[in-house]
Amino acid sequence: MSNSESALDTGNRLTHETGMLARLRRLMAMRETGLVLIILALFVVMSFASPYFLTWLNMRAMAMAFAVEGIVVVGMCILLIAGGIDLSVGSIVTFSMVLAGWLFLQGVDPWTASVIAIVACAAVGSAMGYCVTKIGLHHFIVSLAFMVIFRGVCLLITQGRPLGLFTLPAEFKFIGQGSIGVIPVVIILFLVVVVAFDFLLRRSTVFRKVFYTGSNEKAAAYSGIRTKKVIFLSTVLCSTLCGVAGVIYMARFSSAPPYFGLGMELNVIAAAVIGGASLQGGTGTILGAILGVILLSVVTSSLALLDVSSYWQDIIRGSILLVAVIFDHYMNKKKNAS
Amino acid sequence: MPTKPLLKISKISKSFGATKALKSVDFELIKGEIHALAGENGAGKSTLMNIIDGIHQPDSGDIFINGEKVTIQSPAHAQQMGIGFVHQEIALCPDISVAENIFMAQTNSSNSLLMNYSKLNEQARAVFAQLSPIDPATMVRDLSISNQQLVEIAKALTLDCQILILDEPTAALTDKETQVLFGIMKTLAASGISIIYISHRMVEIFDNCDRVSVFRDGAHIVTNFVKDITPDDVVNSMVGRVIEDLYPPKLSVEEASDDIIFQARNYNERSKFRDISFDLKRGEILGVAGLIGAGRSEIAKGICGLEGNVSGDLVLENLPITINSYQDSIAHGIVYLSEDRKGDGVFLDLSIASNISALFVEQISTNSGFIDINQELAQARSLSDRLNLKRGHITHPVSSLSGGNQQKVAIAKMLSINPRIIFLDEPTRGVDVGAKSEIHKILRELSREGVGIIVISSELPELIGLCDRVLVIREGTISGEVTGDTMTEENIMHLASMAETNPALVDNLQGNRA
């Protein structure tokens, strides 16, 4: 998944030695490696601290917890690289759930309902993209407005009550609740999305233009890149992945609560930033963002197992984000000084 | 002139990590003199000024002011000792008045709860009486760049300074504004203030300064009275070698071709330019001169489809072409190198390799739309060798390079598509002498290979030294053309400003166009 030869990765690889040792040193300098080590360290500590931590059940529960959110993180990470941001992800995920659920209750086949919901989310993304690229408004404000509007739309569709969807056919529920062998389908879907987008982001010409645009929009335009189109499509992609995640959530919970996903945007942005994406655009990797979401999830799960008051969880997650951002700040300073 | 120095620097050294920025530097400033500092980027001028201003502390060595040994702890401390520093970048608050900007330090330390605006404006007016008639109540954002520069200078003056450091203050000024600034500098010097003047422009140094000190590689090379030396002496000690041919040889008469590779006819933009018609011949380098704001960049960007609402005809290698967007332009092999390298020329935080490939990523990709990394790196390495790029690894970020080498990356990006016509807007702005001369050589090689080269520059010696022919733009239209013997700074300035002093000459030059 990680390709150490990508021409884009300027990272911290300020050495140009070759050979095994240099490769190892470059690997160690990568942010992803650091995150993996922190996660492993947490695993070791937690396996001593709690007998339940390293059990199959707990591992599975943790993976299920971050898998669907991880799909949203992929979309957010790409949008952040393009220089945008989307605060509406939680509302759009819920909108997808609620719309698909409502259509099902009206007698629409659940698969058709899901496709309609995902297309509707793509349309919502297009509307946001239009406001940003054609009207010239800021992503932050536009998505803030959409966040509020679509929370309202969800309440309107459901009339404020969760939609019970227990009558969903078993083959549809399989997406969210079934397993292939011992591996839950949700995790397989998550891995497919992550691997595909990680590869595309590193290698495809289309996604390379996302990096150029986010790094310096004007320079990208002066390199013949249609930057507005890139930003528009990144916005649509993020909303579409929210739609996909919403449908999976619906299958998983057999329910569509209008208040689902509150605060999801903060968790998702935090994960991407911990993973190395910058709010200034131009940097970030899918692998890093996913490791960010895994780290946050492992921490949450550990705190629960250790019986730490849930009030502490936000404080600790916020602090992790702060530490990651401070770390970046100093690394950038060091890089610029050399 | 008294010989006892006002400021004396003795054996100052300063290192940043492994880099020795200053190596045992000596320097003296006499009361009432204008003392120029010259040197390539990275020669140590800025570090020395930052030490004098208390921003950095020296590792070793002493500073004496009026013969007394001092330690300058901070910029605020430097101000108390009468040292004023006008930085290259303007650092004013745009949303408050000129007077408030000038007295920012004082309003800070004032104990009263309310601002006394009338007193403030009165004080500011008194300061500007020596400088230039600017109303102290104006908002800074409403001032021209040159007037903002004057506000910076006024700010330094109100601190009662004896030593005024000006770091390339003329970079953003027009010639006329520059002359006003020099007038002010001379008045200040006559009143006993010593001025340290940092500049890359030899003409300014030789016309206005008393002495010049040259720095190279962190060492002080020589200090001379300007009347005793020539600009060539200064350039030679700056680069540490004799630059015999500052510019590559031009096309000889035999080499000149009548083969026209690119033609613009009656090119217009709604408001920015009109009736632009010119030919570009094979092998020549065509210069474009004009005052800032005359529309030079707008014409190039208009032709390339980057901005503006344009109309007119273009002919490339005898075939009429239409350019509706920059993508069309790139497809025809017509590219534009922007004047603002850091702002829109390069991607500072991306790697050298991915900067070079940005113009046509599809070129280094497989048919299925995936980038072939090896091909990308190979392309970058080969262009980097061709342009003699001084770099670390090809995957290092562009921000790790010096200004001149960043510019080479921007040029490499243009060359990656084997262009047919390149518009270069200020290709050597902020580039040191060595890299500048290399860039000129590269442009000449390209033109000999048949690539059309059009250079826009504000630096007349560059246009005259490099180009075979220069078009002069005034108020959005071509006001004339100079070539061969008529290519002089005076003629170009005449055409650019259409001074009425010599109408016969202007007519004559305009006649040359046909």
Overview of this protein structure:
- The complex is a heterodimer of chains A (338) and B (514).
- In chain A, 73% of the residues lie in helices and 2% in strands.
- Chain A is mainly alpha-helical and 338 residues long.
- In chain A, the strands form two sheets. A two-stranded antiparallel ribbon of chain A has the order 1-4.
- Chain A is globular, with a radius of gyration of 20 Å.
- Chain B has 514 residues and is of the alpha/beta class.
- Chain B folds into two domains: 5-239, Rossmann fold (3-Layer(aba) Sandwich), CATH 3.40.50.300; 260-511, P-loop containing nucleotide triphosphate hydrolases (Rossmann fold).
- Helix content of chain B is 34%, strand content 24%.
- In chain B, a hairpin with a 2-residue loop joins strand 14 (310-316) and strand 15 (319-321).
- The termini of chain B are far apart.
- Classes of the chains: A mainly alpha (338), B alpha/beta (514).
- The interface between A and B is large, with 36 and 44 residues.
